[in-house]
Amino acid sequence: MKKLFLSAAVIASMFMVSCSSDDDAPIVDPPNEEPGDPDDPEAPEDVVVSGFITEDTTWTNDRIWILDGKVVVDEGATLTIDPGTIIKGEEGTQTLASALVIDTGAKLNAVGSPEEPIIFTSILDNIEVGQTKGTNLDVNDRSLWGGVIVLGLAPSSFRGDVDQVLIEGLPENSGYGLYGGDDPNDDSGHLEYISIRHGGAEIGEGNEINGLTLGGVGNGTIIRNIEVVANLDDAIEWFGGTVDSSNLIVWGHGDDGLDLDQAYSGTISNAVIIQTNVSDHAFEIDGPEGSYQDSYTIENVTVFNDNSSEENDNTGGREFAQFRDGARGSMTNILMLDGLPTATFNIRDDSEANYTDGLLTFEGLEIVLPDGTTLEDIFTDGTGSTTFTEDAAEFVTVLPAPADATIGADLSVFAWSYTAQESGKF
């Protein structure tokens, strides 16, 4: 029910929220409405928001917006975020984890620019208005808040062929968070030049919020030039839907870089995945869960894998890719660099038939092999029932060094990103 959350700050004709009648919500004073310089003590104050946004709303870049718990853009409302705006999530786990949720029927128009990206980060980040990065957090600081969740009405494949399901990362009985439908052209808004940092708060055991979650998002939505840094769970995950996504860069994820589920059928193009010692997979791809079947396209991706020997409680497998549960789609022009000898590119769990039948395909892959390995060591069939390992020589080229690569992402489009400036990979 909606009463799980407090009402939002009322901001002088900028937005309103609604809550159930039994909410006992505090009144939050509106901020100074006069514009001002960030160094001026009279500059606009930070704004704390929570609850439901039910009217068209704009968040401006002259102040910091603080997410206190879940902020849900309700059906029929549009949240516009101006270029250069900084949004910080409060600390909190389980039902208290902060996140921005764009519910089905709502829209997020968050369009930054290379010079003024929109930044989602933690309340612990000392970044200030007008800046693009702080000084006290780095790629090892994860799970400090939740993340960004966008939900739509595009086709998705669910167990039991139900119409809709609750998105991962939200508590049950929350009164929002369902996604899926029959409109491939559904429009959830426009997301561009956005950096999402230090998220992934835990909702429960094994249930964390992704940096960017896309549930049933339709191809009327624009998603491009997106960065996710230091998320505890997946960097970006698509649960069904049809939305195309391009110019994506992810770094230091604790689980998977790019994760596909429930018959996602859009195109992912021009992406960079940088794994660290906590990462599990660059790609984790699952197939349909119900009778609805469709296929994805992934093209022009560069994977910088991690081969450090450091071991701790959070050390990840750092595999290149895993295809599971009937995965179906195509991967073209994928460049993979270095990694551990265990960094496999693996078919498993009922995906072997789709590979054999030509429904799971690979073309134009290049790799700099991890030290001491062969192509057969990396490209493996966990089922042992296909010619995938033998076929790898036909679609994978082994490179002597990264400088010999002829494919992969166009790295020049990521110059704006925190990752390009701080990771040492550019």
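(the above was protein one; protein two follows)
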Amino acid sequence: MTVSRTINGHPYVSDATAKRVQAAIRKLGYRPNLAARMLTGQLSKSIGLIVPNVADPFFSVISRAVQQAAREAGYTVWLAASDNDPATEEAEIEQMTHHPVDGIVLAPVNCRSKHLKVAAAGSIPIVTIDRSIEIASTDSVEAENRAGANMAVEHLMGHGYTKIHCVATDFHLRSIRLRVEAFEEYLRRAKLPARKLILSDTASALPGLTSLFGSRQRPQAIFATNNACTIAVIEALQTLGIRIGRDVALIGFDDVNFYTIIRPTITAISQPVSELGRTATRLLLERIHGQGPAEEVRVTLPVALITRASCGCKR
């Protein structure tokens, strides 16, 4: 009992006793048995993190931030990638639930998947990141999607562009729909046509843009709704021989490190990606320890416009 109290920081252990126990732990190389701790109803001191794709720069930064914040609080992170497959995501949530973690940070594949409603109603707290669940209530952390789209359109219009196209992938996600909706509303208020190209996946960017640039609706500028879409647009325009920043302006939503080393450099809406991960972890740990309000918490973090050359800016 004295060893257990020492390890768990119990206030009734004297400093002298605690030092003797810690010395014995170091000498013997003792490690607490996690399974035994959980059988006695104690926390596992671990959380789950499920993201669609760890190779995506956006989610790799989030993963690192979650791990750092959890480590600072004495928690281990179990990381899983759903590979953008709802069935895989469902299996990962179930596995984490039955091989207990104390909570899960989740970036859902589809915000309306039925298994999310079951997961949200379970005993393990869930905090969504970037993409809130639309059919259930959980804590969530996301960026200012509408404000970011407004910044992009306003900047493009400031260059004098009137034929602006929105190109979007992952339209099933609420965050993407909010960006597209804000784009359309801004242009309507400006009494300009609000045209959009919704792609089924990034592979369809080349045929989609080939058709678009061969039509009478050829755009002067493009707003791409996330980093995967922006990269697909860049690759398609290069294949078509269309010069970014000269033949067409481009702004992407999500800033990526290599945007500064390709030519032209890419103007982007920057999300506070690390802060998204840290905030989600903090909210989850509060829920795990029974803190916070009874109703769900929805945190929205600010975005910023990072101007470079692709939009037509000289610098």
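Reviewer note on protein two: Residues 54 and 60 are 5 Å apart (CA to CA).
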